[in-house]
Structure formats: structure tokens, C-alpha cells
Write a structure and sequence with these properties.
The chain is α+β, with helices and mostly antiparallel strands and 244 residues long. It has helices at residues 6-37, 43-46, 71-87, 103-119, 184-193, 211-223; strands at residues 50-61, 92-97, 127-132, 142-153. It has a domain at 50-153: OmpA-like domain (60s Ribosomal Protein L30, Chain: A, 2-Layer Sandwich). The chain has a 4-stranded mixed sheet with strand order 1-4-2-3. α4 (103-119) links the parallel β2 (92-97) and β3. The radius of gyration is 33 Å and the shape is flat.
Length: 244
């Protein structure tokens, strides 16, 4: 005969509560597995390369005792102007400091900057001047040149939503699947190195063929001779004569 004392009843209630808590915990783990299983297996889908409009900028440091540009600064300005003609999607914005110890030198330097931009082919309407005063006058105010451009970006990288080792919350480990951060650095580096981001979306149109070279190959084919190109100095790059 079972003795249902208050102590035994309290013990039974505690066991039931423990079982209920364990069931809730296991249900939470199951829910987490479903979310993890929804992560794409292809790294190109986990870390897609997005095309957006970013900024390209050049910073010019101007001391209060010098109003001109150095040789490297002139090269930076000319380089920015040449690249703007190819990839710029908006005007070049020039932030020129005012009310600073080097404000007069900055004005003289910006006149030279404007002349260099005009010499490189930037029209007057392609330059927008903005005056600004830094919050901290103790810092050296600079001339900033920037313009919008189409750029590609991927990431951010370094996200680890799962453990890499075996875990009850990480079934991907036992299924030999890629971890979440796999391929992110590759996608981010590819987006940073691509010269024309539109190449990631669509191919460029074909250019005209080199007619003299094509005619020479067709003439060799018509005569029945080999169409491969034979370079007379090709053997100089070989390290061994094995196979001759």
C-alpha cells in the first residue's frame, strides 16, 4: 500500500516539474537545429556579394605655412580625377576648412587642386565645394576630395553562430557540412579586387576580333598546316631537355 504523505507528494511534483523543464529544453534545442538547418550550404548564398554605391576619397594635409601641393599630393589629385572620369557616379565634393590656423594655406592649395582637376578633364559643374570647421581646432584640418562610385561588398565576416566541434546543437558537424563563416573571406576579397562591379552581374559585350591574326589562322587551316603559334624563344624558359 502506497503511503501518500505530503513529503512524497511534494517529491512527485518536483519530479514532474523537472521532466517538464527537460522537455522544454529539448524543444528549444530542436528549434535551434531547425534554424541552423536553414542556413544555405553554398558559400555564395551565405555570403552574397552586394552591389551598392560607396565613396572614394583622397585626404590632403596642408600645413599653415605652405599653400601649395607636394609632388605626391599632385599625383593623388590627378589619379583621383582620372579614375572619376571612368567610374564616378556623381560630382567630386571638396571639403575645405575655414576658421582654422591653416585656412589660408588650404584656400591656396585648393586653387591648385581645382586647376589639376580641370586639366584632367573634370568640368566645373563636376566639383562641389563645401566649407567646414572642425570641432577640435587643435587637430590639423585637411582638404577632403570624395565622389560616389559603384562598388561591391560582402560580409561582414567573423560570425560564428555554431561551434566548430561536435555538439548537440551543431548537427552540421556530423553531416560534414561547411561552417557558416566558410568562404566569407574569399567573397569579401573578390568584391574588393574586382575592377568593374557590373562584371559580377553581367558579362561585357564582345569587342571586335583582331582581323589580321584571324586571317592568318584561317589561311593555315585552309592549307592544312598546324594553326598553333610557335615562338622561337619558347625553349629558353625550359629548365630541362627531358622529353625531347
Amino acid at each position: 500500500m502506497t503511503n501518500k504523505t505530503p513529503a512524497n507528494q511534494f517529491r512527485i511534483l518536483r519530479l514532474c516539474g523537472a521532466f517538464v523543464g527537460l522537455a522544454i529544453a529539448l524543444g528549444a534545442c530542436t528549434t535551434g537545429e531547425v534554424v541552423t538547418a536553414s542556413v544555405p550550404n553554398d558559400y555564395r548564398l551565405r555570403h552574397p556579394i552586394a552591389i551598392h554605391e560607396g565613396d572614394r576619397s583622397v585626404v590632403i594635409f596642408v600645413g599653415h605655412g605652405r599653400g601649395g601641393l607636394s609632388a605626391s599630393q599632385r599625383a593623388d589629385v590627378m589619379g583621383l580625377a582620372q579614375v572619376w572620369l571612368r567610374e564616378g557616379t556623381g560630382a567630386i565634393v571638396a571639403d575645405v576648412p575655414v576658421g582654422t590656423p591653416n585656412a589660408r594655406a588650404a584656400r591656396d592649395a585648393f586653387r591648385q587642386v581645382r586647376s589639376l582637376l580641370a586639366a584632367a578633364g573634370v568640368p566645373p559643374r563636376g566639383i562641389v565645394v563645401r566649407r567646414y570647421q572642425p570641432d577640435d581646432l587643435r587637430t590639423l584640418a585637411t582638404i577632403r576630395l570624395s565622389y560616389p562610385k559603384i562598388s561591391a561588398i560582402a560580409g561582414p565576416c567573423g560570425l560564428w553562430p555554431e561551434d566548430l566541434g561536435p555538439s548537440i546543437r551543431n548537427p552540421s558537424y556530423f553531416e560534414n557540412k561547411q561552417y557558416f563563416n566558410f568562404g566569407c573571406a574569399y567573397q569579401r576579397n573578390l568584391a574588393a579586387m574586382v575592377d568593374n562591379p557590373s562584371d559580377l552581374v553581367q558579362p561585357r559585350s564582345e569587342t571586335l576580333a583582331y582581323t589580321p591574326r584571324r586571317s592568318m589562322a584561317f589561311e593555315k587551316y585552309r592549307k592544312g598546316t598546324a594553326t598553333t603559334t610557335i615562338y622561337p624563344d619558347a625553349d629558353r624558359a625550359k629548365l630541362s631537355d627531358t622529353g625531347k
